[in-house]
Amino acid sequence: MTAQIIDGSAISKTIIEELKQEVARLKEDHGVVPCLVTILVGNDSASQVYVRSKIKMCNYLGILSKQIDLPEETSEEELLKVIKQLNVDPSIHGILVQVPLPKHIKENKVLFAIDPDKDVDGFHPTNVGRMVIGEPVFLPCTPHGVQVLLQRSNIETKGAHVVVVGRSNIVGKPVANIMVQKALGANATVTICHSATKDIASITRQADILIVAMGKPKYITADMVKDGVVVIDVGVNQIGISPAGKRILCGDVDFENVKEKASYITPVPGGVGPMTIAMLMDNTVRSAKIKYNLD
Ligand code: NAP
C-alpha cells in the first residue's frame, strides 16, 4: 500500500479562502473588522519571520493587524503593562505574544496575563480547562489543525485508537485531549507516549491514527507502524541547508518508508505546518464574532 498524501497546504488554502469570505461578510453585514495584535520582544530572526507571515495573512484576509515590537531589554513588568492595556481595548479581538521570550521574562506569567477572551493561541489555563471539559472556545492552533486535517480528509476518528507520541503543552497534551472528547472529529481511544514510555514501538504499532510530535528527525520507522495506519507528523526538524541557502526540513517520521505502509500520511513540509496559521486566523475571526454575539 502506498499512502494518500494529506495535503496540508491545499486544505489550509481552502480554509483561508473560506475565512476571507467570512471576514468580508462580517464587515459588510455588521461593520465588524477582526483585529489581531502581535507582540514581538527582541530580535529573534525566526520569530520575526513567523510574525511577518501572520501579519501578511491578516492583510490578505482583511483582518486588521497591529504589530508591537519591543526591545530585547523590555522588563517583564513593562510587557505585562502592555498586555493589560490591550486586554481592555475593545477594538482588539486577539493578542498573540510571540515565543520564545527573552530569558529574563517568565513565559507563563505573560501568557497567563492575556485576557482568555482574546487568547487566540489557546494557551491560557482557562482555555486549556475549557478544552479539557469539552467546552472549547479557542483551541490551540497546531493541535486543532491536526483535528481539522483529519476531518477534511474524511478520516474517521470515532472509536479509532489514536496514539500520540509527545506530551508537550503546545502539541502532545492538547491534541490527545481534543481527540478524546465525546465530539465530532474526536471520540477516539487515546494513548500518549513520551520519553519514559517502555517499548514505544509495541504501542505505535497498535495505532489506527498515529500523531507524532517529538522533535526527533525520522524517529518513527516503518517497522513501528501497522499496515493502513494514518500518520500525522507534527515534527519540523532542520537537517541541513540546500546549496541555494534554503533550510532542509524533515518530520519525526521516516516519510519515504512509512508511506509504503500507511493509508494516509502528512508530508513535512506541507502537512500540519500550514494549518497552524489558518487556525490562528480562525480563532481571531471567532473572537470578533463572539464579542458581537455573531457566533
Ligand atoms: P517538545 O516540547 O520538545 O516535546 C517533545 C515531546 O516528545 C516530549 O513530550 C518528549 O517526552 C517526547 N519525546 C522526545 N523524545 C522521545 C523519545 N525518544 N521517545 C518518546 N518520546 C519522546 O516539542 P513540541 O513543542 O511538542 O514540538 C514537537 C515537534 O513539533 C517539533 O519538531 C516542533 O518543531 C514541531 N512543531 C510543529 C508545529 C507546526 O507545525 N506548526 C507547531 C509546534 C511544534 P518527555 O515529555 O518525556 O520529554
Feature tags:
single chain, 295 residues, alpha/beta, Rossmann fold, six-stranded parallel beta sheet, three-stranded parallel beta sheet, 10 helices, 39% helix, 17% strand, globular, binds NADP nicotinamide-adenine-dinucleotide phosphate
Structure, explained:
The chain is α/β, with parallel strands linked by helices. The protein has 2 domains: 31-115, Leucine Dehydrogenase, chain A, domain 1 (Rossmann fold), CATH 3.40.50.10860; 141-272, Rossmann fold. Helix content is 39%, strand content 17%. It is built from 10 helices and 11 strands. It has helices at 8-30, 45-61, 76-88, 107-111, 125-132, 141-152, 172-180, 200-204, 255-258, 273-291; strands at 4-5, 35-41, 64-70, 94-97, 161-165, 189-193, 209-212, 230-233, 237-241, 247-250, 264-265. A 6-stranded parallel beta sheet has the order 1-11-8-7-5-6. Strands 3-2-4 form a 3-stranded parallel beta sheet, sandwiched between helices. It has a two-stranded antiparallel ribbon with strand order 9-10. Strand 5 (161-165), helix 7 and strand 6 form a beta-alpha-beta unit. Helix 6 crosses helix 10 (273-291). The protein is globular, with a radius of gyration of 19 Å. The chain starts with a strand and ends with a helix. The relative contact order is 0.17. The model has no long low-confidence stretch (mean pLDDT 97). NADP nicotinamide-adenine-dinucleotide phosphate binds next to helix 10.
